[in-house]
């Protein structure tokens, strides 16, 4: 399908258009990521087709996740955020720039628990229901297995019990939905996550602006789950404190202007370690400990 709703018109050579999901479970986390990166949406936060941002050279296009790969490939959008599975389903010729580390799932082949099928080889001649007919067709062709593909628009896991299909190809993140519907996995096709993609021509023509956005998003992803610790330490206890702190490349030790005997020690640590570290740091001689969240971290 060739997109007809949106066109390349309306933006100059310095403006990039970012395509983002207009709905779905991943839409809100993506919006939050964009905001944390410093790219704030204008227009009163209204969900318009195309939304301006505080950067006059970046605009956001809201679209269906399945359409985003094609919009980016065709130049309707310069960059886009969607699932890797969507890119493969559309067979879109785009550049993959960044794994956003969200929406992780595995595209699997599953059958009813009571089925005698033990492997995909047993599915010859079977009916396979899926929202990913392109990927499914390629997978079974690569295995030399002829199946009848039943394309559905949702609730794929229900099709075997409705007599519509003998097996399904669907995304699974935790496996809970499959278990609830009494399905078991017999094979895995691909691992998917939410990724940032780019139009290949835009990568050449608007590289500087695209790199700027990639850096902003990357800094938020890198900071996720990290905390910044600051504390005062007597010089005699510095080595003991340093042995407790892992940090990125080790803690930073700085002189304190008001005291010759006390230094300031700073370190970046994983959030889940803070509870344990604070007690260890106190025992090692640290005091005046501050724990601060990190919004962005740029290397």
What radius of gyration results from the CA coordinates? 25 Å
Largest sheet, in brief, is:
6 strands, mixed
> What portion of the residues fall into strands of 2 or more residues?
25-35%
- Determine and state the CATH class of the largest domain: Alpha Beta
Q: How many domains would you count in the coordinates?
A: 3
For the largest sheet, list the strands in their spatial order: 2-3-1-4-11-5
How many angstroms does the end-to-end distance come to?
Answer: 41 Å
Shape: flat
Mean pLDDT: 92
Q: What is the H/E order?
A: EHEEHEHEEEHEEHEEHHEHEEHE
Which spans have pLDDT < 50 for at least 5 consecutive residues? 1-6
Structural class, judged by helices and strands? alpha/beta
| Number of helices, counting only DSSP H or I runs of 4 residues or more | 9
Number of strands: 15
Please name the CATH topology of the largest domain.
D-Maltodextrin-Binding Protein, domain 2
CATH superfamily of the largest domain: Periplasmic binding protein-like II
Main location: cytoplasm
Domain ATP phosphoribosyltransferase catalytic: 64-218
GO molecular function, one term: magnesium ion binding
Enzyme class: transferase
């Amino acid at each position: 399908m060739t997109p007809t709703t949106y066109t390349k018109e309306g933006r100059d050579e310095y403006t990039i258009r970012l395509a983002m999901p207009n709905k779905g479970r991943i839409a809100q986390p993506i919006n939050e990521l964009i905001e944390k990166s410093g790219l704030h949406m204008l227009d009163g936060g209204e969900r318009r087709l195309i939304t301006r941002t505080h950067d006059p050279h970046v605009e956001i296009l809201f679209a269906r996740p399945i359409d985003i790969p094609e919009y980016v490939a065709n130049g309707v959008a310069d960059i886009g955020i969607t699932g890797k599975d969507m890119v493969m389903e559309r067979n879109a010729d785009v550049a993959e720039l960044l794994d956003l580390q969200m929406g992780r799932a595995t595209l699997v082949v599953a059958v009813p628990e009571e089925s005698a099928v033990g492997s995909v080889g047993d599915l010859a001649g079977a009916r396979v229901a899926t929202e990913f007919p392109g990927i499914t067709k390629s997978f079974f062709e690569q295995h030399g297995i002829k199946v009848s593909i039943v394309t559905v628009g949702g609730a794929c896991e229900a099709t075997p019990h409705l007599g519509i299909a003998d097996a399904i190809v669907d995304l699974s993140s935790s496996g809970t939905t499959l278990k609830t519907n009494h399905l078991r996995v017999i094979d895995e096709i691909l691992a998917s996550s939410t990724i940032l993609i780019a139009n290949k021509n835009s990568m050449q023509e608007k590289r500087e602006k695209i790199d700027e956005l990639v850096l902003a998003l990357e800094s938020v992803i890198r900071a996720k789950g990290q905390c910044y610790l600051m504390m005062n330490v007597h010089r005699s206890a510095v080595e003991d404190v340093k042995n407790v702190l892992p940090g990125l490349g080790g803690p930073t030790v700085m002189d304190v202007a008001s005291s010759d005997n006390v230094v300031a020690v700073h370190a970046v640590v994983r959030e889940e370690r803070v509870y344990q570290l604070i007690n260890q740091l106190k025992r090692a001689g640290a005091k005046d400990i501050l724990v601060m969240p990190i919004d962005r971290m740029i290397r």
